[in-house]
Amino acid sequence: MSRMLKKYTVIYKSVLIENLQYMFNIAMGFISYFIMCFVFIKLWNYIYADPGDLIAGYTKEQMIWYVMITEMVWFGARSSTITRQVSSDIRGGNIAYLMNKPYHYTLYILAKYTGEWSIQLPMYALLATVMGVTMIGSLPGFRPVTLLASVPCVILGVTVNAVFKLCISLLSFWIEDSAPFQWIYDKLILVMGTLFPIEIFPGALQFLFKLTPIYTVCYGPAKLIVDFSAEKCAEILLTQLLYLCAGLLLMFFIYGKGVRKLYVNGG
Amino acid sequence: MVYTQKCVYGIAVLFYISIQLKEEGGITLKVIEADNLSKTFRIKQKEKGMAGSIKSVFRPQTKEIHAVDQVSFSVEEGEMLAFIGPNGAGKSTTIKMLTGILYPDGGRAQILGIDPVKKRKQLCYQIGTVFGQKEQLWAHLTPYDNFRFFGAIYDIPDSETERRIQEFSDIFELGAFINTPVRSLSLGQRIRCEIVASLLHKPRVLFLDEPTIGLDPVVKDHIRSLIKQMNRELHTTIFLTSHDVGDIEKLCKRIMIVNAGQIVLDESMEHLKYHYLNKKIIEMKLSNHTPLPDLPGLTVLKEKNGQVRLEVDTAVMKINDALRFIDAEQAEDITISNVPLENIIMEIYRSENRVQVP
Prior knowledge:
Chain A has 267 residues and is mainly α. Chain A has helices at 2-19, 23-28, 30-47, 60-76, 81-92, 95-99, 105-135, 147-170, 179-194, 203-210, 214-226, 230-259.
C-alpha cells in the first residue's frame, strides 16, 4: 500500500515540478476570472436593491462570496488532462504506451491532475481573497478556523468532479468523441450550484440536484465557507465520500471493460 | 524421517542435474512463447460522398482485418531477435499483445511464464519497451529526474536507483546532459535516455520498436553498440522491430519476417544473409556509353542516358570483380547499397518455399 502511494506521489510531484514552470501561464487565466467575477458583483449589486435584503437565505456579501468561491474552484480545477488528453490517448493509441507501466492508468491521470490543480487552485484562492476583500469587504460571520473543515471539502469536491469527468472521457473507448458529454456535464455543474446556489431553485429541483454528484462539487464547499455549520459539513463530507467511492468503482468498471475493446492501430 | 531424507536427496540431485545441464547449454529457457496468437480488428467503412456518409449513419459497415493470424513462435533467453515486416504486417500488434496492451482474440502468449492478459502489471516489472516514435520521458524534466521517477514507479529503492543511474550514465555516456531538460536534447541523446529509462528496472526482456529511427549513422552505430553491450553484460533478451537493415544485420542472430499477420520466415541471420542479403545494388552515372557485360551474378535492372542500375549477386560474384568488369573508372558517380528490405520481404512473401515455423 505504501509502495503504491509512493508511486502516485512521485507522479504528483513530477507534475508539480513541471507545472511550477508555468505559473505565469496560469496567471494569464486570472483575466477571465476577474471579468466573470466583476460581472457577477455588478449583477448581484443591482439585484440586491437594499443591502439588508436576503435572497434564498443569502445576504448580498454571502451571495457574491459564494459565486467567487465556486468560480475559484471552477477555474482553479480546470484542466485538459482528465478530458481531452484521456480522449486523445484512447483514440490516438497513446494509451498503449502508458498502460505498460506498473501503475493504473486512471490513477496515473488522477495523480497528474492533482499535481496540476495543486498549483492552480491556491493561486486562484489567493486572487479570490484579494478581489473579495477589496471589492466587497470581508465575509460576514466568517471564522478562519472553519477552513480546517471547508478545505478538505474543496479538495474532495474537486476529486469527485475529476473522477466523474474521467468516467465520461473513458467513454472514448466506445464513442468517437466524448466532448459533447463533457459539455453537458460542465453546463449542469455551472447551473446547478456554481453561478447560483441550489437554494435559488424550486424545492422539487433542489431535491433532484441534491441527488447528483454535482451537488458536492461546487455548492457544498462554497456553502461551507460562506455559511459554515457542523451538520452541513458532516452531510457534505459524507455525500462526497459516497460519491467518490461510487465514482471510483464506476471508473474502474468502465476502464476494465473499455481496455478490452482497445484498438491501437500501427505503431 | 527416512522418507523426508529421500525427498531432500532427490530434490538436491535434480537441482544439481539442472545446473549441470544449464551450464552445458542443455537447458534453454524460453522467455517468450506465442501459441496461435490472433487479433482481428473491425474497421469502419464508408462509401464515398455525402450519400455514403448519411448511409453510414443508418447502416454502419465494418470490415474485418486479421492483423495477426495464428502466429506461433518462441524466443530463448538472451536471444536478439529481429521481428520485421512491411507496414501493417502485424508487428506492432504482436508486440502489443506480448506486452499485455492488446487482448488477443485467439491463442495465448507467455512471457517468462506470465500471461500478459491476466498479469500485465506483474509482467511490467520483467519487461522494458522502447518505441522510437513515442516518448516515454517527461519532456520538461531532466533525464536524472525522469530516471528517479521511473525508479519509484518500478519500486526500486532510492539508493539502488542512484546506483543504477550512475551505472547506466557511464555505459550510455549521459554525463554531459543528464541535468538538461529532455525537451532540449537531440534525438540521439533522447533515445539513449529512453533506453536507460527502460533498463532501469533491469528487465529480462526488452522490446525495441524502431529504436534508431531518424538517427544519423554515427549515433545509430553507437546505439547499436550499446544494445549489444547490454545484451552481453545483462543477458537481456532483445525483441527488435526495425525497418533498418543495419539494425538487423548488426544486432540480431535470428530474424522473423511477418506479413499479412503471418510469419513467413523464421531463420537465423546467417541463413538469411546467404539467401537474401547477398545481393547489392550498384547505381552509376557513366561518362561514356559503355556496353555492360553479360555475366552470371550481374543483372542490369535499368539503363538509360548513362544512368545504370545493376544487381550483383555476391554469392556468385564479388563486388570488386563486378566493378572491374563494368569498368567503374568510367563512372562519374557511384552508389552501392543493399537490396531494400521491403524488396526482400516482398521476395520472401512471394516465394512459394515458405519456411514453416516450428
